[in-house]
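Question (not urgent): is this output format expected?
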Amino acid sequence: MRGTTFHTEAPIADRPTFGPGPPAARPWSDIMRRPFHLLPLIALGAAAPCYAQHGIRDTSITIVPITLSYAYQVPQGDMALRFGNSNSIALGAGVKFKNNYFIGAEGSMIFGNKVNESGMLSQLIADNGDIVDQDGQPSAVLLYERGWTAMITAAKVMPIVGPNPNSGILLKLGGGYMRHKVRVETQNNTVPALEGDYLKGYDRLTAGPAGLFFVGYQHLGNNRFINFMFGFEVMLGFTHHLRPYNFDNGRTDDGQRVDGLYGLRAGWILPLYRHADDRIYYR
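Got this back:
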């Protein structure tokens, strides 16, 4: 018996369409079953642009400046009685925050070749006017100023002038320690009275707490290459003599000293900070 074949006509909606015509609309339920199709629409419709991170050119940023500087200093107070004008080389580092406040530390070396208390060696001078060495030969004895300071500093940058908000008037205060002495140098000769522990009776070693004030200008270039500072600096030390007594006069300098130094300081700055990201992100 030949089977019977039934032909069922496909519904109009399911018939294939040939040639141009409007695309069939996709049911909302089908779209919701694949929600990742909606992500581009959600991103474009609801996202707000996130601006790129700003750099040193247009905003105040956190920076770690390392500064190497030089100062020519004029002594004041008790320091002027002992020494003449001097030089100072300083190295400092710290952190400048986004609010342009700064904390850091710095140390400096003080050196000069003018000693006013040249009479400290008068008792070693022979009748011929020379200081003689162990062989009875004239010896060249030189006196120098030597010292150092160590300070903890706090500063504020006021961006009144400069190429960006990280440059401007720099006000700095510091507190720490000052130490200085007379360096007695006999060069190639050996003078027994100026060797070993005997030398400590002439070096006028002095030390004590000290303060620092600086006002000047700080420049941090937009391209990292031109970075410098300069200004006026004052150091004030409240020091005491550290030796028991002086060999030349037999006295003990146990009084309070006020050792002042002021001068002009200028230096080069190496600023360490992250580069800004120039890309724009969307969230």
